[in-house]
Amino acid sequence: QFRRDTTQVDSAALGQQRWWAALYQQAPAIDDGVFFRKEMFKFYTHEPHLLERAVYQAWDFAITEDQQSDYTVCVTGIQDVDNNLFVADITRFKSSDSFVIADAIIDTWVKHGSCALIGFEDGQIWKTLKAVFLRRCEERRVYPPHELLVPLTDKAARAQPLRGLMQGGKVWFKEKAAWWEEARKEMTQFLSGGKHDDIVDALAWMARLSLTH
Fold first, then answer.
1. Inter-residue contact 122 to 148 (CB < 8 Å)
2. H or E element that contains 181
3. Backbone φ, ψ for residue 52 (5° rounding)
């Protein structure tokens, strides 16, 4: 008779935290995280051996008129033989220039050993960018392998595989990385009032790409 409904208690507590953060801290997001909890974050200092890993890069684009405030993001992940994912790098910038973005894709691929499989979301943005990307590849004489990812409009559904991997202790972030603070902020504020979720989207695509291989 003394058992409590913990779901209702947690929901009520979360609502109070959001109200407090919004009213007194002018920040309606919870720092501990809702979808991605801070206890899910694990860190590494040494990457897997070159002969025992696969490298993936996933891009989330923001080059349409109604997305001028968003970022274009690339996440580079390394998968080891035990299916651990090591988030090695995050590239994040704003640009509506297809040539700038195409060169950034190539530069990031070359930066990480010219061996990554790249994932692009299949949609109108990729169709707009594709010709320029292939042209720059030809001009620079580099040919990154890439495949298209099936679009998912539900951001929570898109991020569920990443969440599951993190809950299973399979995702590791590079310790003391320059990009970590922005990544942490987006992840802990995901679906709870955060301004941006571009890094989360790219991380989710990278996780899905790795799971299909």
1. yes
2. helix 180-188
3. -130, 45
